[in-house]
Amino acid sequence: MFADFSVEQILWVAAAAFGAQIVGGIAGYGMGLLMPLILVPLIGAEAVVPVLSLSALITNPTRAITFWKDLDPRKAIFVTLCALPATAVGAYWFTLLTGRGAQILIGCLLIVMVPLRHLLRRMRAQLSGASFAGASFGFGFLMGATPGTGVVLLSILMAAGLSGTQVIATDAAISAMLGVVRTGVYAGFGALPWNLVFLSLLIGAMATPGTLTARWISRRFSGSFHNGIFDVAIVAGGALLLWQVFLSEQS
Fold first, then answer.
1. DSSP states of 90-124 as a string?
2. Which of 12, 45, 76, 154 is most buried (CB neighbours < 10 A)?
């Protein structure tokens, strides 16, 4: 046992984090959508977002550094400044949720994010000026309150004219900067107890090997087939979380 977790649980979380980081390095999103499926049964829904928020302070900078040459610093700073106040509000709102409320929120989000990603891609809206700022502000609240909102940020950045690894690098930089605020709010309001810090650091420690592996894969293979499997897994996981809430109400 270490930090209230067995060796088997630690190895399982490490393996899942490694795989999720590979997905994130290829597709630009993944950690916040995949890891809740592993963490909710282990630590409870109310602890998932704070744990992932702290781990992201390692994973996102690692991804940003890996793809540093493709970073758009002006857009990264613009989105961060617009989203920052809403991120703090969203994070505080999340700390008010009960465990059941958090599980319902995460389950619904996992299901909704898959069709939302495809819808936003098809719309191909162009953002600039006020519309870019407004979208960034709305994203900030989502980021503070829920996991897996990288899908939304990716769509915003693509609508603002970025593509390919530019999106991945800029997304990582923005998420890293906003993550400091989000994690600070969680810790300040008691949503990130010390016994879960170890788990966050373990997930973050898988950032470097996972991202380097993702860079190697992204240069050689298409991710379309993988993304299809990924979408099915996310929807199924979200449905499972909601089913668990339903069963708990019946018992």
1. HHHHHHT--HHHHHHHHHHHHHHHHHHHHHHHHH-
2. 45
Between the CA of residue 122 and those of 58, 115, 159, 168, what are the distances in Å? Answer: 32, 11, 11, 19
| CA nearest neighbour of 94 among 82, 84, 104 | 104
* Alpha-carbon distances of 149 from 28, 32, 115, 117, rounded to whole Å: 11, 7, 13, 10
Pick 247 or 5 by higher pLDDT: 5
**Identity of residue 38:** I
For residue 76, count other CB atoms closer than 10 A to its CB. 21
What the block records as the tokens of 62 is: 């690692």
Residues 86, 65: Cα–Cα separation, whole Å: 26
Domain ranges of the chain: 7-250
Please state the φ and ψ torsions of residue 196, each to the nearest 5 degrees.
-100, -10
Measuring CA to CA, how many Å separate 174 from each of 9, 136, 153, 160, 187? 31, 10, 9, 14, 20
Angle at the Cα of 97 from the Cα atoms of 95 and 47, rounded to 5 degrees:
65
Question: What digits encode the pLDDT tens for the residues 24-42?
Answer: 666 656 667 678 778 887 8
Euclidean distance between CA atoms 62 and 214, whole angstroms? 12
User: Looking at residue 124, what is its pLDDT?
Assistant: 60
User: Given this model, what pLDDT does residue 117 score?
Assistant: 63
Rg (CA), the chain: 17
The C-alpha atoms of residue 222 and residue 51 are separated, in whole angstroms, by: 31
Give the three-class secondary structure for 55.
helix
Q: 202-239, pLDDT tens digit by residue?
A: 888 877 787 777 777 666 655 555 556 556 655 665 67
